[in-house]
Amino acid sequence: MSGQRNDSNGASSRLRGLQSVLSEEVIHSQIGDQIQTRYCKRVLNIDVVWLIVGFGLFADKSYRSIFRHCHDQSIPVPIRATLTMARKRLSADLLRKLYQGVVTLLAKSKSRTPSAFYQGLRLMAVDGTLLDCPDTDANRQKFGRVENQNSHGAFPKVRVVSLCELATRVLWRSNIGTYHQSEQKLVLPLLEHLSPKMLLLADRHFGVAPIIYPLIKRKNPFLIRVKKSHYFPVEKQLPDGSFLSTIYKHKNDRRSGRPGKTVRVIRYRHMDRNRPHRGEIHVLITNLLDPIQYPAIELIDLYHKRWEEEIAFSEWKVLMCKGRVLRSQSPEMVRQEIWGMLIAHFIIRKLIFEAAEMKKVSPSEISFTGAFDILHARLPDAPRAKRARKQWYRGLIHEIAQEQLPTRANRINPRKLKRRSKAWPTKRDRDRRPPKPNGQFIDCVQISI
Fold first, then answer.
1. What b/e string do you get for 251-281 counting C-beta neighbours within 10 Å, with b at 16 or more?
2. Distance from C-alpha of 385 to C-alpha of 292, rounded to nearest angstrom
3. End-to-end CA distance of the chain
4. How far apart are CA 249 and CA 311, in angstroms?
5. 3-state helix, strand, coil in the chain (%, to 5)
6. How confident is residue 8, by pLDDT bands cut at 50, 70 and 90?
7. Which contacts of 420-429 are long-range, i.e. CB under 8 A and separated by 24 or more positions?
8. Do β-strands 282-286 and 198-202 pair in parallel, antiparallel, or remain unpaired?
9. CA-based Rg of the chain, rounded to a whole angstrom?
10. Cα–Cα distance between 65 and 370 in angstroms, integer?
């Protein structure tokens, strides 16, 4: 890179152990033409990329502390203002392009990762989550926030919808939107990434005709839960208890005699009195119409694997980011930060995947927390020599492989809060910029008898 800093250790030298996952060559192959056009004497653009990825790897650290985690002592640490201005040189679209080029589907075949496939179809899921971003004027105006007749929410909300490879929990493709944009609209661009060799699982928020019709048109297999209030008359009873029915694009199409799309409907309930929601009716629809090849009981069990994406969101938001509010003050930087954190999550998931292949177990059986802690502990020890670094990397994967989880127990806890919010007064918009105190505190003290 022309004008590059003379650094014998290279950019992000302390993160040299992650070169096999996100190397400088990979970064340059994806966005090299853009990051070469801008240069700062103190901070290289390649350093800024790793700084943004570091927001996910070291979420509880400050800007300068993350920079220290990325570089040896031979490189002076810039002040925070320099790092902040350096971030603004790289647009969010640039990080999105890097995310799409780096994050890949990890499961290669059914023989190597059996849990990733069903009847030759790769198991995928789609879902959304909300993130809190700083309460600035720009973020409030762009992203919006929760509100009711009494007050507003504490922070603006960013909505992220992701396609997830369930067996590996890789958040493969994502779309970032505002709080007021529905998940149903944000998911539509993601459907274009699906192929007929993928089986899409989704909850009832996505069980609507504007999503189902494009899937049927593209011949993408799906298994989606719908609200039990949806009307599906039995048109043909199938031997496994499911039946064929018709879904219509608009609510008046059935009454008007317009054609619809044939789907297979599976209605079921569980009767275990020791589980929450006993007796509640669940309704699944699918375009896998053959009851012999795809038995209803298998599809019912398969649908609940969708929960792996919820765990992936928990890994990202709770374990990696510690449930913290995002640090970016503007909408563009918020998006940039999210793309960087998604890349960081993929780095951990790829390490876990390689460890699972070494151990010959499912990736879901390797502890994410254990892998994350091991990476933090071992990164500073990564050697400079390439051959020694390969040996270090093999040792890292072997150590992560030892973090095997016990067999997952059945879920028994209902969705209820154990600790409710304290009854403190609600901060309102009028409290946002309080007046500054008059002088020092001691100057205003009055002793009373």
1. eeeeeeeeeebebbbbebeeeeeeeeeeeee
2. 57
3. 73
4. 32
5. 40, 15, 45
6. very low
7. 426/150, 426/151, 427/154, 428/151, 428/152, 429/152
8. unpaired
9. 25
10. 22
- 186-228: per-residue pLDDT in tens? 999 999 999 999 999 999 999 999 999 999 999 999 999 999 8
Structure tokens at 242: 């499911």
264: phi then psi, degrees, rounded to nearest 5: -105, 130
What is the residue type of 217?
Answer: K
Q: Any idea how long the chain is? A: 449
Contacting residues for 139 by C-beta, under 8 A, at least 6 apart: 133, 156, 329, 330, 331, 334
Q: Are 125 and 199 in contact (CB under 8 A)?
A: no
Distance CA 42, CA 76 (A): 8
CA distance 201 to 261: 19
How many Cβ atoms are within 10 Å of 388's Cβ, its own excluded?
A: 11
Instruction: Kindly report the pTM of this predicted structure.
Output: 0.89
HEC string of 150-209 equals: CCECCCCEEEEEEEEECCCCEEEEEEEEECCCCHHHHCHHHHHHCCCCEEEEECHHHCCH
For helices 92-102 and 45-57, give the axis angle rounded to 10 degrees: 70
Give φ, ψ of 418 to 5 degrees: -85, -35
Task: In whole angstroms, give the CA distance from residue 158 to residue 266.
Answer: 34
Q: Which helix (H) or strand (E) holds 94?
A: helix 92-102
Rounded to whole angstroms, the Cα distance separating 113 from 357 reads 8
DSSP H or E segment with residue 123: strand 121-132
Q: Which CA distances in Å does 291 have to 114, 124, 226, 237, 281?
A: 22, 21, 19, 10, 21
Rounded CA gap, 99 and 340, in Å? 8
